[in-house]
Amino acid sequence: MLDSSKIEEELMDYLLTNPESMDTFEGVVEWWIVRSRVRQGIDQVRAALQALESKGLIERYLSQDNTEFYKSSIKSQNDHLKRGK
């Protein structure tokens, strides 16, 4: 469970970035907190994908419109174990 001081910090970060914001309790939870955490998580997921790609565990493909697609480069569980898990 999060410490309320962490939530206070997230709320103030949001308000500093969006000083004109006003919302209901439900809106504060959904827009100010949850979406902020999703944005933070995006950076962590991108870093994890890059790390897995550099280890040869996944492959990244770019479509013609530069959309990124990812897929496993592991053929079997044994292949995964050989690569050092």
Task: Explain what the structure shows.
- The protein has about 80 residues and is mainly alpha-helical.
- The chain folds into two domains: about 1-55, no CATH class; about 55-85, no CATH class.
- About 60% of the residues lie in helices and about 10% in strands.
- It is built from three helices and two strands; from the N terminus they run H-H-E-E-H.
- A two-stranded antiparallel ribbon has the order 1-2.
- The longest helix is centred in the middle third of the chain and has 30 residues, at about 25-55.
- It is elongated, with a radius of gyration of 19 Å.
- The two termini are about 30 Å apart.
- The model has no long low-confidence stretch (mean pLDDT about 85).
